[in-house]
Backbone:
């Protein structure tokens, strides 16, 4: 009789795993399907080339870009980022003290799910959390300093494949699901979802621009956009995307945007970081 | 602060190809800031490239040039290891100079 409790525990354990899977989300399968969709849609594009966005799809633009890359427009920002990153805070600490590996070559692991707070932590959020921990004011998420810092961190991770983990935590699963829902939900006066442009129509023209595929779109962030005449973070990109479909953008680094970044990064797992990038 | 000028000059056969990127706001004077006030014009007036005491390229610029301008040109002569001096002066009198070796 004394075996009963152990047996019940065993039964409970074995019952637990199928029921979790039955919750309906299988991010790994999602990511596979997402990649296969793009690979099938663009059979001539090498998988790793998706991180180059429109340049992977348009020969003319690629030629111009390759010439530009000899002298990339993000160079100044990159240098500024390197200086900012190395500059100590008022209390003598550095950004490097807040990150594993001194913050070098870790960009591909962000966003990550923070089990303590139950939130998705993006690289931008982590940088500001670091500042606040050390008594500094937060930076604007759409400003030049943040772009420069993330540009430098992305640069140190160039070529490393995106390595986003979804821990076995229902809150992490939920964040992923929420991000996915945000990505496929239509909004704004134009009634576009993120997917309308970046899943259904990549490679098509939107006026003079060629739409980038959603696969690998964050690998190139932050980007120098000629249209902006400057650098922009992921936050800035999300905000402008929302206003371009004539919707009301959310606050940068709001939970929805962070979940969206979590989803979009996860489905690009395995593709190399190519940031900072340059886009027309 | 690092230099505002990036130069790469490569000698090939009889010519030297020069690429330059300059960090400068190049404000035209016609743009307003968040408060609705005009941002005063602030632009590079003259950009020069000097090789062996000879001006190989001089640009008289105005407000129509873009922010962070990029220049690419080639000139006759120039050999690997030669100095190439690049300078600009803007309408506020600010200036920057850099001397690089031709590769």
Residues:
């Amino acid at each position: 009789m004394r075996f009963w409790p152990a047996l019940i525990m065993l039964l409970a354990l074995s019952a637990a795993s199928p029921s979790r899977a039955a919750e309906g989300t299988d991010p790994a399968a999602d990511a596979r399907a997402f990649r296969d969709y793009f690979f099938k849609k663009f059979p001539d594009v090498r998988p790793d080339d998706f991180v180059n966005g429109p340049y992977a799809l348009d020969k003319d633009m690629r030629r111009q870009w390759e010439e530009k890359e000899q002298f990339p427009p993000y160079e100044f920002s990159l240098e500024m980022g390197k200086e900012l990153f190395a500059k100590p805070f008022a209390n003598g600490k550095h950004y490097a003290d807040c990150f594993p590996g001194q913050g070098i070559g870790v960009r591909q692991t962000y966003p990550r799910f923070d089990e303590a707070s139950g939130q998705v932590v993006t690289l931008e959020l982590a940088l500001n959390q670091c500042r606040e921990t050390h008594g500094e004011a937060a930076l604007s998420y759409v400003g030049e300093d943040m772009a420069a810092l993330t540009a430098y961190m992305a640069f140190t991770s160039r070529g490393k494949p995106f390595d986003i983990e979804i821990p076995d935590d229902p809150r992490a699963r939920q964040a992923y699901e929420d991000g996915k829902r945000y990505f496929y939900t239509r909004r704004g006066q134009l009634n576009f979802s993120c997917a309308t442009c970046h899943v259904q129509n990549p490679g098509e023209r939107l006026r003079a621009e060629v739409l980038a595929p959603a696969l690998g779109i964050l690998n190139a962030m932050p980007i120098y956009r000629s249209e902006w005449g400057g650098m922009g973070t992921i936050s800035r990109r999300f905000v402008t995307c929302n206003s371009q479909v004539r919707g009301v953008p959310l606050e940068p680094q709001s939970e929805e945007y962070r979940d969206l970044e979590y989803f979009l990064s996860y489905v690009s797992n395995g593709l190399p970081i190519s940031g900072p990038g340059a886009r027309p | 602060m690092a230099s505002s000028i990036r130069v790469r000059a490569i000698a090939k056969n009889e010519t030297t190809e020069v690429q330059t990127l300059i960090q400068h706001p190049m404000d035209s004077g016609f743009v307003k800031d968040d408060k609705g006030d005009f941002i005063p014009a602030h632009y590079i007036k003259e950009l020069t490239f000097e090789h062996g005491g000879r001006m190989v390229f001089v640009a008289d610029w105005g407000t129509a040039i873009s922010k962070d301008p990029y220049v690419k040109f080639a000139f006759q002569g120039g050999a690997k290891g030669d100095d190439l001096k690049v300078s600009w002066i803007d309408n506020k009198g600010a200036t920057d100079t850099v001397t690089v070796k031709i590769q």
Notes: The domain at 5-28+38-101 of chain B is CATH 2.60.40.10 (Immunoglobulin-like). The first strand of chain B starts at residue 5 and ends at 12.
